[in-house]
Amino acid sequence: MERPPNLAAAIDAAAEALIGVLDSATSRHAVSVSPTQLRVLSLIMAHPRTNVNRLAELLDVVPSSASRLCDRLEAVGLLRRAPDPRDRREVRLIPTAAAETLLRELTERRHHAVQAVLDRMPNRVQHELLLALLAFGQATSMSTPQAAADSTARTA
User: Are 38 and 106 contacting, i.e. CB atoms less than 8 angstroms apart?
Assistant: First the structure.
């Protein structure tokens, strides 16, 4: 099957539209943290035993920048630092209950905003979109040419 010539541009436009929907849902919330700080909290939630050095790797920044981000989150009560019980030289980054509540509320708002858009689409198109997004996610996770070849063999 031949790829439509404007597929990448259509995906880029759809991604921009999605970002607009998500940003709108976030901006309607009384959020006192930046999108970068929200990303930091999300990363820490997804990687529970994270320290500043690991966070810096995940963000692709220098440790001092990651540490400053953590300082700001700690100052507003969304993050705390605690010694690792297994190695007291290590300091773990722990989201507070307020951070967990904030992320949960924002996730709900974003899901509702996306659902409102999906509700304006026919069910068949929603199903096709789901299949396409799952395939896209699978394709992005393939790290080696052999993995791509194996997947192609399975789906052919």
Answer: yes
Name the token pair of 74: 């700690």
Calculate the CA 12 to chain-centre distance: 17
| Contact yes or no for 43/10 (Cβ under 8 A) | no
What is the residue-level pLDDT of the chain in tens, covering all 156 positions? Answer: 566 678 888 889 999 999 999 888 887 766 678 889 999 999 999 998 899 999 999 999 999 999 999 999 999 999 999 998 888 788 999 999 999 999 999 999 999 999 999 999 999 999 999 999 999 999 998 865 554 455 444 444
Query: Could you give the angle at which helices 7-27 and 35-46 cross, rounded to 10 degrees?
Result: 100
User: Half-sphere exposure of residue 152, counting CA atoms within 13 Å on the CB side?
Assistant: 6
60: left (phi over 0), alpha (psi -120 to 50) or beta: left
Is 43 within 8 Å of 59 (Cβ atoms)? Answer: yes
Residues 6+ apart with CB under 8 A from 124: none
Q: DSSP letters of 11-63?
A: HHHHHHHHHHHHHHHHHTS---S-HHHHHHHHHHHHSTT--HHHHHHHHTS-H
